[in-house]
Amino acid sequence: MQLSSLQALNAARAKRQAAILITDLADAHDRVVVEGDAVEGALGAEIEQRFRSGKSGAVEIDGRPLFLNVHLPPPRIVVIGAVHISQALYPMAAIAGYDMTIIDPRTAFATPERFSGVELIADWPEDVLSSGPLDRYSALVAVTHDPKIDDFPIAAALRAGCFYVGALGSRKTHAKRVERLMAQGFSEAEIARISAPVGIDIGAATPAEIAVATLADVIQAFRRRSLSVAGGESA
């Protein structure tokens, strides 16, 4: 690997950006493409598919044998609310390969006894997220039903371009949420990114079923996420 490529990969890793190391197997020349870089033609289409799947592999493009080594930041789910849905969600998220953090300032809910083996932070989301901000490889799931707790992280997730933003609540509850977000200056298009009620509509009724629907929604959003970023175009 060329030194410039190694430096580019390290820089992408530090910024939690996705990158692909492209090596020409005929002459060993390599280069790095960061998610959002404009790449045209058949190679651009292959790069887009690799960014979405996360799978490395060999391919022949325009008669050249290439190996695409994909480096994706570990996707994570940040859940606001240490509730029954969260209890069901975190073991499933781990199986699916997602890191997960649960944030809830209510110490009666956020206890190690209820959430063994998951990162649990009993503090206000605005304090937690100031030191560990959200990004494009984060999913935000708000399930407290309390706007004093949910509203800040939802707004932060929209601003950060999280690949998924979901919120629990009825349509009436969400309508009031929309009003509050619009008062903060968010556009209708930005607010429309929120999955509310949270999760894919499978008729879920129990906390475990809502957790299944939510994880399915998160996975779908991750695999179908936009690859364009500020300052760049979709591959």
TrEMBL record:
XdhC Rossmann domain span: 77-218
Leader sequence residues: none
Domain of life: Bacteria
Pfam families from the UniProt entry: XdhC_C
Protein's name in the database: XdhC Rossmann domain-containing protein
UniProt organism field: Ciceribacter selenitireducens ATCC BAA-1503
